[in-house]
Write a structure and sequence with these properties.
Number of strands: 9
Radius of gyration: 40 Å
Number of domains: 2
Largest sheet: 7 strands, mixed
CATH topology of the largest domain: BirA Bifunctional Protein, domain 2
Distance between the termini: 77 Å
Order of helices and strands: HHHHHHEEHEHEEHEEEHEHHH
Bound molecules: 3,4-dihydroxyphenylalanine
CATH architecture of the largest domain: 2-Layer Sandwich
Structural class: alpha+beta
CATH class of the largest domain: Alpha Beta
Strand content: 15-25%
CATH superfamily of the largest domain: Bira Bifunctional Protein, Domain 2
Shape: rod-shaped
Number of helices: 13
Helix content: 25-40%
Length: 350
């Protein structure tokens, strides 16, 4: 008796698996009913187990249950292969390679220029300065005239300019993309009274052909202080404190006479080379110095324009290029790399 039932169970298993192997999606329900349904032979055997002699009951019971599980599993597997959307199906068909490494979520970070600007601003905020931002579209008046650079002033040719739509007779009202952050000096002074200690980061524009050291858009950080009895010594002390914080202890600062229309006297400022410390290397062209900003004592003409009395107040101003500072700091030889947004480049500064 037991041999007969067991043989029958094996037959059912073989038959069912063969049917499943050949089945298409619409056959699944029929197969399920035929082999696992209430009226199937397998169910009948399981139901009549109680009538089977107890010596063989465990063996028949186990086999019948195994056959049932086998049929269920292979139905499920076949069904997922056919519908093609389960991981098992993808592994089976080779469309999913489970040995591939997983995808990790990539974290963004601040752009290296943003980091540099924030570092600069933070140092000045620590010295008591207030951060202000003004617009990138300026008028001719704020960008040039009010900064002691009238229409026919030769200094204008030093800063080639992107002018916006020209209207006849608009003169000082003519709009442009600011070539420098210095117009913020006028805008702030017009609207507030000294004492002023202000730092202004922002983008500036000049129609330069892009090359390793030029980009038509770049950044500046403007700073200025207006108070009673501000001297060149204050400017020097401030910039020394800044360089020490920004580039490390022991930095020296050197002033070279220069010309800017809105400061008098004016200077270009060098810091002792942040790479070699002043001994001379490729970065500083073996001079030991790196030029990092322009600065000077605010010209009395500028104070008059904003209605300050130059006899009462004095001040200094400076403007620096964070792009250049970041290039020096990280040994980057082409300014265009900052703005190409190649993630492989930017990721180095996380
Ligand atoms: N605006 C100048 C430039 O773009 C930089 C500069 C020089 C700013 C001297 C200043 C300054 O405030 O005092 O070349």
């Amino acid at each position: 008796m037991s041999g007969k039932v067991l043989d029958e169970l094996e037959k059912i298993r073989k038959q069912a698996l063969a049917d499943i192997e050949r089945a298409s999606e619409r056959d699944f329900d029929d197969i399920r009913v035929k082999y696992l349904g209430r009226k199937s032979r397998l169910t009948e055997i399981l139901k009549t187990l109680k009538d089977i002699p107890s010596e063989i009951k465990p063996k028949v019971g186990k086999t019948a249950n195994d056959v049932r599980k086998d049929i269920e599993n292979s139905l499920n597997k076949r069904s997922s292969i056919i519908t093609g959307n389960s991981m098992a199906a993808k592994i089976e068909t080779g469309s999913e390679d489970i040995t591939k490494p997983g995808r990790t979520a990539r974290l963004g970070s601040k752009h290296v220029i943003t980091q540099t600007i924030e570092e600069i601003v933070e140092i000045f905020v620590g010295l008591g300065y207030r951060m202000v931002e003004t617009g990138e579209v300026e008028t001719d008046y704020y960008n040039f005239t009010a900064l002691n650079t009238p229409e026919d002033h030769p200094a204008r040719t030093l800063q080639a300019t992107f002018y916006l739509e020209e209207r006849a007779g608009c003169g000082d009202e003519r709009t442009l993309l600011r070539t420098q952050t210095s117009p913020a000096q006028i805008r702030v002074m017009e609207n507030s009274k000294p004492p002023l200690y202000v730092i202004v980061p922002g983008k500036v524009y000049r129609p330069d052909v892009p090359d390793p050291t030029h980009s038509p858009m770049f950044h500046q950080v403007e700073g200025f202080a207006v108070d009673k009895e501000i001297t060149f010594g204050d400017l020097k002390g401030t910039l020394e404190a800044f360089c020490e914080k920004m580039f490390g202890a022991g930095r020296k600062v050197r002033f070279r006479p220069h010309f800017f229309p809105f400061t008098e006297p004016s200077a270009e400022v060098d810091v002792s080379c942040i790479v070699c410390g002043g001994k001379g290397c490729r970065v500083c062209s073996h001079t030991g110095w790196l030029e990092i900003l322009g600065a000077g004592i605010i010209d009395p003409n500028v104070f008059e324009v904003v209605g300050y009395d130059p006899e009462e107040v004095s001040g200094f101003a400076f403007g620096m290029a964070p792009d250049r500072i970041a290039m020096l700091k990280y040994g980057i030889t082409d300014i265009r790399m900052f703005f190409e947004n190649d993630v492989r480049f930017l990721e180095q500064f996380k």
